[in-house]
Amino acid sequence: MNTLPRLQLPRLARRARKLATAAAVGVTLTLLAACGTPGADLSPLPPREPMAYQLGVGDQLRVTVFNDPRLTGEFRITDTGAIALPLVGAIPAVGRSTTQLERSVEAALKARNLFNDPAVAIEVSEYRPVFVLGMVERGGQTPYQPGMSVLSAVAISGGFNYRAVTDRVSITRIDADGKAREYLGDRQSLLLPGDVVNVYERGL
């Protein structure tokens, strides 16, 4: 029976190890390709247009009716999409700006003969929260602040954890037509009240 010279055995062993390593790398790359890049199928988050803020369920409003403290106070927009004012009743609020809601309240006061020429001022005293989910230290709801970015929301949630993809996230937002849509965002994307941020998990 033929035998290989002893000097050739180490060479064959090294070559076998190289082939095994190359095969393992190939399998890993194939798996990564199959997994795909998180968020690759999502449209980019559209830039924020300079428009008046649209009110939503959960926003708390400071309503001031001048010369009548009975109607002045803090009111939260309920699940019905309205605020309930004393002596007036429910006023639809979702999807409106504060200026539009001011006009609606003034019209309701006139219709009920409470004022001849009412003057109403409305401001948002507390925005509905954003939600940060996925690979962060403390997922859940986070109080919204004007100008809040993905990175600042993640920081309030304890930061990225060790398994997080840190350069892109998905953002689910209720658009102007009332439908929820999921977009691809990054660390600097600006958020709106009610947004849901999902931090992806790193692959293999």
Automatic annotation (TrEMBL):
GO terms for MF: polysaccharide transmembrane transporter activity
Keyword Magnesium (UniProt): no
Signal sequence residues: 1-33
Polysaccharide export protein N-terminal domain residues: 50-124
Keyword Signal among UniProt keywords: yes
Pfam families: Poly_export, SLBB
Cross-referenced Gene3D superfamilies: wza like domain
Domain Soluble ligand binding, first and last residues per copy: 130-179
Keywords: Signal
UniProt protein name: Exopolysaccharide biosynthesis protein
Organism in which the protein naturally occurs: Teichococcus deserti
Record lineage: Bacteria, Pseudomonadati, Pseudomonadota, Alphaproteobacteria, Acetobacterales
